[in-house]
Input
Amino acid sequence: MEFLLDLPFVVSFVLVCVVCVAVANLGLWLVRKKFAPESLKENHEVAASIFNAYGMLYAVVVAFVVFVTWTRYDEASKNIELEASEASDLFFVANVFPDTLKKQVRQALSDYMNSIYNDEWKAMLNGESSPKTVDAVRKLMHVYISMDVKSLDNVPAYQESFKRLNDLAQYRRLRNYSAADSVPNVIWVVLLLGAIIEVIYTYFFGVKKAVVQYCMTSALTVTLTLILVLIFTLDHPFKGTNAVSSAPIKNVSEMMGRIVQNQNK
Output
């Protein structure tokens, strides 16, 4: 199903919707063929009450899942911005260090951001991290840990930089955590079975005109399909055409690369 993420949202929705509506209407056709509308009208009052209660319960579950997935998607986007911002701040704060240390810090940061954009971003498509980025993080940490703090002229700047380095590592962990699916399979089972039951329930309303009932069932199926496709998309923040943008990482990586290249000349 993940191939749908590589399509524009409208295309993937229409594709899934056509299949779901066709299956839903096929089921309705089979029920209408077996049961006459008049025989179903006797249970309208009870059926309508149960349908309303069921719809309300299902709506609560769907609203909760949409909220969770959207929050996770939004946080993934914010963490990318924060990670890029922290890296950029560390890069420029390195000006307070002696030239040798400044070059080491800037080179390590440039390698780190470059490895994210070129390696780890692709690894996150499979919910994994990149070994190259792990190595880059270790080298960056080693540069800071191996500094002789007593020889530095601006110790408070080093302390603040080290704090920001820890924040940078934290944002990376949150980014990798966001790459994993957030909706467990058991919840997908509940969502899909709930949608199927709700659609099937519409088959047993005794609507005299078949066209009207087909339209009602199709409308409900389209609505449920739209919500489920939305949840599926939000549950994969780093995959497909609607993925979180890598522009912040790319921009900072390119900026660092240009400056490091110039200082090494």
User: Anything to note?
Assistant: Residues 117 and 250 are 6 Å apart (CA to CA). The longest helix spans residues 44-93. The two ends are 50 Å apart (CA to CA). The chain is about 75% helix and 0% strand.
